[in-house]
């Protein structure tokens, strides 16, 4: 179509997601999004929606991308829950080590920035953030853990996972992050063998 700019939606959404991830919602302007995506303001509005709508799309994209990786990692939990949890942490450690993405976790930083978000966006960020614990609980129960222990360990593993992103952003070395993971995985192994 003449006069209509063509672009790849996945590329544009990835660029917007990285911009929000790098700078946070409040510190990302439409000009920043325009530079990151290569689209002008009117194209952003007409193709992607307002800033809140675009941010929600980016949060969903992030949650799906890493959520799918977490699901694959935990898929062997019934056979080997310890290996599954280690693989779960490896997803985060690989993301932290990836130079193509910003430090930290878009979901965690969005929840922390809830006061700067509209109520509906803040609620959506919290819902997405909360998906890790039930995912982990289901995997641990499949691995033979009791309901109560699975809930406790799921909360603990989710909290450690988020702390890895924060510590990685603060400059912790890969060795330090792996040592933290080892403490949690060892505790899980002991609990499962009791």
TrEMBL record:
GO molecular function, one term: DNA binding
Keyword Cell division: no
InterPro entries recorded: Homeodomain-like_sf, HTH_TetR, Tet_transcr_reg_TetR-rel_C_sf, YxaF_TetR_C
Keyword annotations from UniProtKB, A to Z: DNA-binding, Transcription, Transcription regulation
DNA-binding region ranges: 29-48
HTH tetR-type domain boundaries: 6-66
PANTHER family with a match to the protein in the record: HTH-TYPE TRANSCRIPTIONAL REGULATOR YJDC (PTHR47506:SF1), TRANSCRIPTIONAL REGULATORY PROTEIN (PTHR47506)
Protein's recorded name: Transcriptional regulatory protein
Species: Streptomyces sviceus (strain ATCC 29083 / DSM 924 / JCM 4929 / NBRC 13980 / NCIMB 11184 / NRRL 5439 / UC 5370)
